[in-house]
Structure formats: C-alpha cells, structure tokens
Write a structure and sequence with these properties.
two-stranded antiparallel ribbon, 12 strands
C-alpha cells in the first residue's frame, strides 16, 4: 500500500473520479452524466472551431479574455466537460485550477455525429444550470447555429436561432460581433 497522499478524500467519489480524469495518461476525456468518453474531434470539426477563434481574436484583447478548450467542472455532479471552445477572462485562466461554466463569457459546442444529441440537450441544460452566460451551438448535422443566453431556473430564457449556416450570428456584449457562419 502506498503512503502517498492523494488530493481527494477517499470517501468522496466525485472528487476521486475528477482527479482520475485529470490524470489520465491518454487523450483528453470528459464525463457527461456519469459516462466517460474521449474527446476526439475530426479535422472538419476543428476547422469550424478555428474559424470561430479567428473571428473572436480581435475582440479578445479588447475584453481581456482568451479562447481555448480547457476543462470545465460542474461541482456536485459527475460531469467534467471539455467544450470545443470557451472564452474566459485572462485572470480566470491563470493558476491551473479548473473553471466552472459561470466563469466563462461564451461556450461553443460544435456537434459531431456521436455528440449532437448531448450538445443539443444535456450540455445546453447543464450550461444553463451552471450559469454559463452564452452558449453557442454549432449544429453541423442541421447546418445551423443557435445562441442561448440568460440562464434561468429552467434553462436559457433567450434563444436566438437556429440560423442556417451563412446567416450571421450576433454575439452580444461584451463581444459586439456578428459571427460569419458562411464557411462552417
């Protein structure tokens, strides 16, 4: 038996599971409603994320943020998400600690065949529950974007879209940006 101390309590299964996920010796994984699944985006999936990131680039410096795909914890659940893109304040990204959805300015999920239903329903509900202010769903199967805003008790209270690819999606304050979706 090892005498090495672990940074989690043995009687705390949520903390133990999330510790294991952060220290897995493989590709990135996330936990969605208790199910561990690998994060394996295809190149066409990644290209959409790149297009969004490039459009956000001029805005990020102005609002003191960065865009990436770091881990998001949903405390009190077995969920540990790896969004396709999240925008967070520069200060929040420092220190190496995981963030929670409420610490983001924008979360983007880009659907794949295997994740589309999860991104459309489960993650939308959980991001609202954990107070992510903006959730942009880029639905590649439906070829449309939907922006969810103003999280409330029963989910997001404002929904804009779905907008067919090619229709600009307006990101509100602090972004003040019309996102070009023509190349998605």
């Amino acid at each position: 038996m090892s005498s090495q101390q672990h940074p989690y309590a043995v009687n705390d299964p949520e903390a133990a599971l999330k510790y294991a996920i952060r220290h897995i010796d493989a590709d990135r994984v996330e936990i969605v409603e208790g199910r561990i699944r690998p994060v394996l985006p295809s190149w066409d999936h990644e290209s959409v994320g790149h297009l969004i990131r490039e459009q956000l680039r001029p805005v990020l410096d102005r609002i003191g943020c960065l865009a990436g795909s770091g881990d998001l914890d949903l405390p009190g659940t077995s969920n540990w998400y790896v969004p396709d893109l999240a925008v967070v304040a520069n200060e929040a990204a420092k220190g190496g600690a995981e963030l929670v959805p409420a610490q983001t300015r924008l979360i983007v999920e880009i659907t794949s065949e295997g994740t589309a239903d999860t991104d459309r329903t489960v993650k939308r509900r959980r991001y609202a529950e954990y107070r992510a202010p903006l959730y942009l769903l880029v639905d590649r199967q439906e070829r449309a974007c939907t922006l969810f805003a103003v999280p409330g008790e029963l989910g997001y209270t404002r929904v804009e879209g779905p907008y067919p690819f090619g229709t600009p999606v307006t990101l509100p304050e602090p972004f003040r940006l019309d996102l070009d979706t023509s190349e998605f």
